Amino acid sequence: MQWLDITLYFADSTGSRLATEGIKIGYGKNASVEKVVLEQLIKGPGDVAHGITIPDTVGILEVATENGICYVNFDSSFAYSVADASSFSGVASIIGQTT
Predict the structure, then answer these.
(1) Which residues are registered as beta bridge partners of 22?
(2) pLDDT per residue as tens digits for the range 82-94
(3) Which of 27, 53, 63, 87 could form a disulfide with 93 if both were Cys (CB 3.0 to 4.6 A apart)?
């Protein structure tokens, strides 16, 4: 098991911007760091002042990193979750992890 300090991005209290949360994650042979980060985003924020950006109904089908680019295949519920007005926050929280 390897441990890593990371920053996650969730919705702020207004839902119009992103807020950060620092956490420590563990990952190993059975799960890549990329998949663990996505699972933590789906799990939701630890700070009650922050809002979810990806509903816990969203499933991860596959995560693969090639040539420095992370490809994520979500189940179809992701498409429905980003169809509302606050859809930017789900995508933005994922992109925030790669910058």
Answers:
(1) 7
(2) 655 355 567 778 8
(3) 53
